[in-house]
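Section 5: illustrative case.
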């Protein structure tokens, strides 16, 4: 927990297999259709101890439709990975916020990530709502990075200061937006997830507010427990 949650996500390198087809205790039913896919393999994965763990593997042979039955203790971000075989495509991983119930995933082989339509999860709907704004922050950040690289070719102190100021303003707006979104959705597991994955470095006061905004049910969830522990460790470290 002492390492930033997002860093853990970014440094995943290992894969462990744990096939889980037809689990008698399954409380999550996933159905899907990947138009254009006639042959390949799908993997449903979760992050566990900084590692992507395979929950289920599904072979596609002629029929683009698939389904899986999994057991979740609480809502969490899962990943649908498409093994295309011999290909250089990087459009192979589709994150979705899963929760007990029935979730439908529809997409295409050509645009596996971009064409994805996911329904049946309140938390995923909220995540898409959040990401529609967060993507604008990402685009602005990329634009600033391009300006920074261009400025490095012909350094200009005034331009450098302007870029750094713009970057700090952008980061502040992103952090405030994320903290506000998480606080106002304390009844959904996405709240602690965003706190951990997007703004783990924010002032502890904001994290403390998000933690206190969680409903008892969310506080008992996977990410709720992780956030509570993370806030506890941050407070102990910053004393």
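Designed sequence:
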């Amino acid at each position: 927990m002492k390492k930033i949650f997002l860093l853990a996500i970014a440094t995943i390198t290992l894969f462990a297999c744990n096939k889980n087809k037809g689990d008698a205790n399954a409380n999550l039913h996933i159905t899907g259709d990947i138009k254009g896919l006639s042959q390949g393999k799908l993997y449903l994965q979760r992050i566990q101890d900084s590692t992507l763990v395979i929950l289920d593997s599904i072979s596609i042979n002629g029929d683009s439709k698939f389904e899986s039955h999994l057991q979740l203790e609480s809502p969490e971000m899962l990943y649908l990975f498409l093994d295309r075989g011999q290909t250089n495509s990087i459009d192979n991983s589709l994150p979705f916020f899963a929760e007990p119930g029935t979730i439908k995933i529809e997409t295409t082989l050509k645009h596996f990530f971009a064409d994805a339509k996911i329904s049946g999860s309140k938390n995923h709907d909220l995540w898409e709502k959040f990401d529609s704004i967060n993507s604008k922050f990402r685009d602005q950040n990329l634009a600033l990075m391009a300006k920074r690289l261009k400025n490095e070719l012909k350094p200009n102190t005034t331009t450098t200061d302007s870029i750094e100021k713009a970057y700090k303003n952008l980061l502040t707006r992103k952090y405030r937006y994320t903290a506000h979104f998480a606080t106002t959705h304390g009844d959904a597991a996405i709240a602690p997830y965003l706190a951990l994955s997007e703004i783990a470095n924010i002032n502890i006061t904001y994290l403390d507010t998000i933690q206190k905004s969680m409903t008892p049910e969310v506080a008992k969830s996977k990410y709720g427990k992780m956030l509570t522990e993370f806030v506890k460790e941050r407070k102990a470290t910053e004393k």
